[in-house]
Amino acid sequence: MEGELEADVLPPSEAQVGIDVGLKTFAYLSTGARIDNPRFFREEEQVLSRAHRKLSKAHKGTLQREKRRKVVARVHERVRWRRENFIRQEVVSLIKRFGFIAVEALVVRNMLKNPKVAKSIADAAWSSFFAHLLGKAEEAGRAVVRVNPAYTSQTCSGCGHRQEMPLSVRVYECSSCGLVIDRDHNGSKNILDQALKAVGRHGRVIPEASGL
After folding, report:
1. Is residue 149 within 8 Å of 101, Cβ to Cβ?
2. CB-based contacts of 118-121 (< 8 A; 24+ apart in sequence)
3. Alpha-carbon torsion 47, 52, 55, 56, what sign?
4. Residue 166 and residue 150: Cα distance in Å, rounded?
5. Residue 184 among the catalytic residues
6. What is this structure's pTM?
7. Domain range spanning residue 91?
8. How many domains does the chain have?
9. Which of 90, 104, 123, 193 does the annotation list as catalytic?
10. Active site residue 104
């Protein structure tokens, strides 16, 4: 299958990465790279709404209603297939590049209880991403470490200073050392730092210069 991984041909990798998942950007890597959020459900939402309206107007038990029900099912199936294909491709890319991968230990089912973000979180499919990443990493002999997500956004990845960071603030400006960095990039660096400490590797690395 396209995008799948031949675990036995992967060369060893010393490369390390922290991954901070989000809604605006699907994932921000500690390397500075970003994975865009494709928002497959959002793309199909209008099509799905029209299909549901047509379905609701068809009488129960009729051939027309069955045809319209199949149209709705096909839209959902298309969204699911595109989402799964996206996740497979991104996971394979990460597994090939990095030998050590750090992610947050998010309890996604609890986050889905928030009605303001539930639909967007479901569309991003974080649970599926983490599950696929963990499975493929194990097959390939890559290390994945899950860390406590607490304070990864509020802590400066340069000096360790902690400050309040409302969700609306997208740039971290450290009041202690002056580091200026994208909020999610900062989080991904802290995720990697925590994971490395957890396995006894290294501590915080002071960045060479501040700036986005």
Report:
1. no
2. 119/41, 120/23, 120/39, 120/42, 121/23
3. negative
4. 14
5. yes
6. 0.77
7. 7-198
8. 1
9. 104
10. yes
Which residue out of 90, 123, 184, 193 is catalytically annotated?
Answer: 184
Distance of CA 163 to the CA centre of its chain: 24
Q: Could you tell me which of 197, 13, 190 has the C-alpha nearest to residue 104? A: 190
Give the C-alpha separation, 129 to 19, whole Å. Answer: 11
Q: Residue 131 is part of a domain; what is its CATH number?
A: 3.30.420
Options 20, 90, 123, 193, the catalytic residue = 20
Helix H or strand E segment including 80: helix 63-97
Does some domain include residue 98?
yes
What are the tens digits of pLDDT across the range 73-117? 887 788 888 888 899 999 999 999 999 999 998 876 666 666 665
**Is residue 107 a part of any domain in this protein?**
yes
Structural tokens at position 113: 């209880």
CB contact at 8 A, 13 and 20? no
| 36 is known as an active-site residue | no
